[in-house]
Amino acid sequence: MLQSPRRRARREDVLITIQRMRLLQIDSIHVVARSPYLVLHSRLGSYPQSWLEEALEAGRIAECWAHEACFVAATDIGFHRAWRTQYESKHWADKHAARTRDANLADMQALLERVRNSGPVRASDFERTDRGASGWWEWKPEKRWLEAWFASGELMVTRRERFQRVYDLAERVLAKLDPAFDPSLLTWTHAELRKRFILDSVRALGITQARWIADYFRLKPTVDETELAPLLASGELLSVPVTGWNSRAYVHRDHLGLLEKARDGRLRATHTALLSPFDPLVWDRARLREMFDFDYSIECYLPEAKRKYGYYVLPILHRGRLIGRLDAKAHRAEGVFEIKALFLEEQVEPTPRLLQELAQTIADTAAWHGTPKLKLGRCRPAAVASALRACWRG
Q: Where does the source fall among the domains of life (predicted)?
């Protein structure tokens, strides 16, 4: 995400980007664009959102539990399925699925048999007229059962319809993967899989300390320098010093060319983007603070009175720095992209170039989203508002 896209996005770029990140987290909040679409937009620029669903239905990507619920490349799904069967410290989704099966095994078996005999289903295929015990709408039983079978691997997602999961037997989804599913991946040992995920994490992160690696794929126990020593010895990882860091930094050998450019001062950041709260760049809050001096939390899960910046706040990436945050809401019916509030970090100087590039990025994101009319609320510093409006007027 250092440099802006040099050409218009192509269909295959969706898969290439997911392969580069190793996974793309799924989240259904759609105050702005849903997270996976926004993560791709921040890297590809304008592209048809339908490309993601088309890649899933064609079997080029698949869904599984990894960091959280994620899209992964078809070539990687075998590693994740093998890991889920071996992982001693289960992901919370696995534990929840086991509890659900224990409490509803007969009903869940009947549901699985329905899918086997009648084909793919959606949660919306099952009617519900009651409310949950809390008095609010909650997942209907069939939705919980489908999710439990998905978490444990008996069901997979064959496609999405208006972002709703369509579930089918795993064997049928695996059979349509492109490239074809490799069952030999299921024989990999725990040590082999852990090494694979460690290397994939370092490659995806770009540069990292040992203590930041485990979070990418939710590995337990935490990765430490002793575990990484053999990967340094084999040349699969490189160790580099970073000014201001007390711990050594690690880079995957695939990034040697970029590392040499950085050492020579030839690696220049030019890109500006609005980031999803679920972008891999901002997952690890400790890494975010140390690398970018940026303190960030997702406030949509907080009561309104406790929010500092807003409900769905997007970090602003500008030329290799996180310079601020933007609380946005897309009013799709009216075609309006509302910026409720925009905050620059206190140490950021709002230069004309920064404001021009930020204004262009906001306008491009809004247009891609189908909400090209811009509505700007409060800004910090306040003078930023008039400067952005002037940029939009052209």
A: Bacteria
CB 371 within 8 A of CB 336: yes
332-344 in b/e form (b: 16+ CB < 10 A) is: eeeeebbbbbbbb
- The tokens describing 63, both together, are 């869904």
Q: For the chain, where are the alpha helices, taking DSSP H only?
A: 12-21, 35-44, 50-57, 77-86, 92-118, 141-152, 170-175, 190-205, 225-233, 256-263, 285-292, 352-368, 383-393
**What are phi and psi for residue 22, nearest 5 degrees?**
75, -20
| SS3 per residue for 244-294 | CCCCCEEEEHHHHHHHHHHHCCCCCCCCEEECCCCCCCCCCHHHHHHHHCC
Its pTM stands at 0.94
66 and 217 in contact (C-beta within 8 Å)? Answer: yes
- 225-233 helix and 190-205 helix, angle to the nearest 10 degrees: 80
DSSP state of 162: T
User: Which of the 8 DSSP states describes residue 75?
Assistant: G
Q: Is 251:240 a contact under the CB 8 Å cutoff? A: yes
Tens of pLDDT, residues 161-186: 999 999 999 999 999 999 999 999 99
Give long-range contacts, CB 8 A cutoff, 24+ apart: 324-330. 324/348, 325/296, 326/274, 326/362, 328/31, 328/32, 328/274, 329/31, 329/32, 330/30, 330/31, 330/32, 330/33, 330/366, 330/369, 330/371
pLDDT in tens, 141-162: 999 999 999 999 999 999 999 9
